[in-house]
Amino acid sequence: MRKKLIKETVKELERQGYDEVRLNVYAKNFAKKLYENLGFNELQSIMYIKTGQI
Fold first, then answer.
1. Is the pTM of this model over 0.90?
2. What are 4-51's pLDDT values in tens digits?
3. CB-CB contact of 23 with 35 (8 Å)
4. CB-neighbour burial class of residue 25 (10 A; exposed 0-12, middle 13-18, buried 19+)
5. What phi and psi values does residue 26 have, to the nearest 5 degrees?
């Protein structure tokens, strides 16, 4: 169901004239693999540190 929903959403956005779809997902989120399997590519990495760590 998740794959179908994502595919249909991307198709609808394409029909509306969008040529790119972006989403944000945490690196350890199980859905990251789902998005990769659907053809999404990793665009960037965001680095962070919690205060009090340095």
1. no
2. 999 999 999 999 999 999 999 998 999 999 999 999 999 998 899 999
3. yes
4. middle
5. -70, 145
| φ/ψ (deg, to 5) at 49 | -145, 140
Contacts for 40 with CB less than 8 Å, ≥ 6 apart: 23
Give CA–CA dist 34/19, Å, rounded: 21
Q: How many Cβ atoms from other residues are within 10 Å of residue 17's Cβ?
A: 6
The string over 35-52, giving b where at least 16 C-beta atoms fall within 10 Å of a residue's C-beta and e elsewhere, is beeeebeeeeeeeeeeee
